[in-house]
């Protein structure tokens, strides 16, 4: 654990730097800056992307941007937008904006969807979960629910492990309001979302981690190998960790282990000639 604690101290230093840079951009004009909220958010988002990228196999890629379906490409409605999208690297984007990592990706390729917040509060967390739920609603009905959390499909993931087409959903924040983010609030307002589709809510600068788990008939919880909610006879359980600061390295390790395992065990769905043709406007 000493080595893990040393790694955690390095991560803490990186997070403090990002917090200071972000806070500096949020200062009022009287202090020399002009409320650069968008730039502040970009700094936080890029840090989270970098953190996740360190633990992402080469068979996946990470981007920001838009999720499209064959139907939405033909309509005039806005495409689904998210801070971070993790996709199966074997499947190219529909369009890539060359000046950034912003992409339009097909729904079949989506393996993970993460909403990023600078500071987690009751309002910002509800907003993030609501935005993710809107996407889940679309994916639940797409192609008969192939991207649904309750889909029975079990396939081989890009990492050659048993995988699922269901995407990983998470909310990650740089910091949180510790008075608002307490066990009672999560139990009354958030746990239902964890049971339904949110895989975890994590604040790496603190000991806050709320994650989905299974529950045996004997009352013991376990972390499933995939993000699917198809647990057979097992029940779902919400695992909440918010101990004292000296446990921070352990909680960090759990979060990274869950992310590495769950994202490795997701996969893009089949995208053949007929499916590709539908995205590019011909049958």
From TrEMBL:
<dbReference type="Pfam" id="PF20247">
    <property type="entry name" value="DUF6602"/>
</dbReference>
<protein>
    <recommendedName>
        <fullName>DUF6602 domain-containing protein</fullName>
    </recommendedName>
</protein>
<feature type="domain" description="DUF6602">
    <location>
        <begin position="39"/>
        <end position="134"/>
    </location>
</feature>
<dbReference type="InterPro" id="IPR046537">
    <property type="entry name" value="DUF6602"/>
</dbReference>
